[in-house]
Amino acid sequence: MPTARLRTAHPMLWAGLAAAALGAVLCVIGWYGVSGERFAERQVPYLASCTLPGAALIISGAVLIAQAHGAAAAARMDRLYGLLVREDAPQPSAAPVGASSAELLFVPGGTLYHRADCPLVAGKPEAVPADAGALAAEGLGPCPVCEPTEPGEPGGSAEPDRPTASDRPTDPGRPSGEAGPES
User: Fold this and answer.
1) Helix and strand element counts for the chain (H, E)
2) Contact (CB, 8 A) for 13 and 64
3) Based on CB atoms within 10 Å of each CB, which residue in 15, 39, 85, 159 is the most buried?
């Protein structure tokens, strides 16, 4: 369906072409009249009545043509924007990216795997479920946006384990049962 900008572009284009053509005809008539006169004072009426208005019409026609091309380009951009952002398209869920989702997805040919609620794969019909075998076979890495955990990872935590007090090395000069100096 043509937009209002596109409907106004065609009349401007035709008006610009008509003005430029009429201006060219007037310039040719003026040149023919000037070329037939020997004296400058007899050439001035042809310049004033044909050549100058013809040049003005050519310039006006060029401006109208440029405006028509601009309106047509704006109509194409409106049409592309309408295709990109459709009002009838389903809107993505309002769940935050940090929400947990156990299902993992990946797009065949891609390099990352995602949680099902990741905005990078939400609504993509080509996204397929991922398991540990598919992740290893495809060589997929985790998505930096949704930060999914690998299947089978305990606790579902993406943070590395932090050392506890029992993991810290002890002072080799002190027996393990002795307490350190109190401060």
Assistant:
1) 4, 4
2) yes
3) 15
CA nearest neighbour of 43 among 51, 35, 34: 34
pLDDT tens sequence across 122-145: 878 888 888 777 777 878 888 888
Q: In the structure encoding, which two tokens stand for residue 43, read together? A: 């050439």
Residue 10 half-sphere exposure toward CB, CA atoms < 13 A: 5
Angle formed by the axes of helices 4-35 and 52-84, nearest 10°: 160
* Burial degree of 5 (CB within 10 A; 0-12, 13-18, 19+): middle
Half-sphere exposure of 59 (CA within 13 A, CB side): 6
Which residue shows structure tokens 């284009």? 13
The pairing of beta strand 104-106 with beta strand 112-115:
antiparallel
Length of the chain: 183
The values of phi and psi at residue 111, to 5°, are -120, 0
Structure tokens at 10: 């065609």
**Higher model confidence: residue 157 or residue 138?**
138
Strands (E) in 1-111, as ranges, are 104-106
- 77 or 131, higher pLDDT: 77
